[in-house]
Design goal:
This protein is of the alpha/beta class. It is built from 15 helices and 22 strands. The strands form 6 sheets. A 7-stranded mixed β-sheet has the order 14-15-16-13-12-18-19, with helices on both faces. Strand 5 and strand 6 form a beta hairpin. Helix 2 packs across helix 6, helix 3 packs across helix 4 and helix 3 packs antiparallel against helix 6. The protein is globular, with a radius of gyration of 25 Å. The structure holds nicotinamide-adenine-dinucleotide. The site of nicotinamide-adenine-dinucleotide has 28 residues, from helix 7 and helix 8.
Length: about 500
Amino acid sequence: MDATTTPATQVASVKLLIGGEFVESRTTEWRNVVNPATQEVLARVPFATPEEVNAAVASAKDAFKTWRKTPIGARARIFLKYQQLIREHMSELAAILTAEQGKTLPDAEGDVFRGLEVVEHAAGIGNLQLGELANNVANGVDTYTLLQPLGVCAGITPFNFPAMIPLWMFPMAIVTGNTFVLKPSEQDPMVTMRLCELALQAGIPPGVLNVIHGGEAVVNAICDHADIKAISFVGSTKVGTHVYNRASLTGKRVQCMMGAKNHAIVMPDANKEQTLNALAGAGFGAAGQRCMAVSVAVLVGEAQQWVPDLVAKAKTLKVGAGTEKGVDVGPLVSCAAHDRVTGLIERGEADGAKLELDGRKPTVAGYEKGNFVAPTIFSGVKPGMSIYEQEIFGPVLCLAGAESLDEAIEMINANPNGNGTAIFTQSGAAARRFQEEIDVGQVGINVPIPVPVPMFSFTGSRASKLGDLGPYGKQVIMFYTQTKTVTARWFDDDTISHGVNTTISLK
Ligand code: NAD
């Protein structure tokens, strides 16, 4: 038994949200939500029963009957109000997030803020959910499209962005006229629940947004449920692939944003100080628990001499509880994550990579029980080593060498993942070559974490994504709507009559 399973009855329970009410689960299966810096149990989260899953879906199905017909302006105004409420509660939301997830308070605000941007975008739905019209496609005939909502949609989210990723999902699904069932990460559901409370306060009607908690059984029930039309999943490749396959079998539309191994290429002409800052921030920020974290830097030519400077830079980062001022690297989310990351560091050494900086067992005064791993750097990393093949999801940066840009591009394209990548260079020609040749969905040029803002879509590719359409941006309007194409002819006299038409042609 560890802190996540030890019975803790003295703490608050996380509620389900069904039909506009926050209700206590009747389940017998609970798990603790634990502060990763202290191991304090903050709350207990239920694993919803099959009846509760069905009740949430039924409430969403019922609410869809009226919500789908709610005028676009009324939907937009709820999200205008919602963005204001999120802004007003920013510090409170960040504090809840840091307590349960571990990241620093400024980074927790960033987590909320990047979700808030999607809420702002949702408020502009009047300009987004537009069909097309072609006038006079035949005599007196017009053709136009309606982008209609699908019905009940569901979202399944990971632990690492408990504010941003739920906000990628339910605002865009709901503002396009769908109703929603959200299944947050059972590791840190509290900030997500606070965001849902604020969403109801903003005016989302009962049943339009529902929340159920749980793990594998609840996720499988969502995949199988006949009344759910679409699922948005963000999480690991293993679970995402399972969700994609299982939910597709029942005819659902599914999008899965999954694991990563993001490489950055460092050209010898790059601005050295800015590049080292970017690598340290993107490799070790959020303790490496970002799907867009840089986990491999490919140093090209002379840039391979920069290893000692990078190590020196990494040593300047302060490790500690996310609530403490000046901290750069908080704890890993759980004891299990800590053990997995330190185990991979051991494997890296055993596989023959050179451990340039060992972040195991840092001393963090006052937080001796925290799941801390300090910045760790390996050089001489090669394909085939465990630290290269697996997503470490910790503050571990792997350094590889290449003699040319082409060799570095070849290495990245040979890796199965396609979430994010970046190049650091002062050469426009090198950057353009990289942009053209690299087979990764999100590309940064002197930008280490190129997560697109919401007027674009999140566009991971290859093994990092299943499904054609990404979350937010234009693509998500297509994901959450069904296009209906109407071909119409209105008669007011006989002037355009051609008699009986026995052909397929429009006359
Ligand atoms: P995870 O896959 O363990 O969990 C994701 C969700 O699936 C959670 O809600 C969880 O309850 C559920 N789940 C867990 N095990 C399950 C099982 N066996 N069957 C069914 N459902 C299950 O992911 P995580 O550890 O919470 O998050 C980290 C992962 O998410 C990393 O791989 C990271 O790269 C990825 N991620 C990807 C993106 C992206 O946009 N590509 C963004 C954030 C995180």
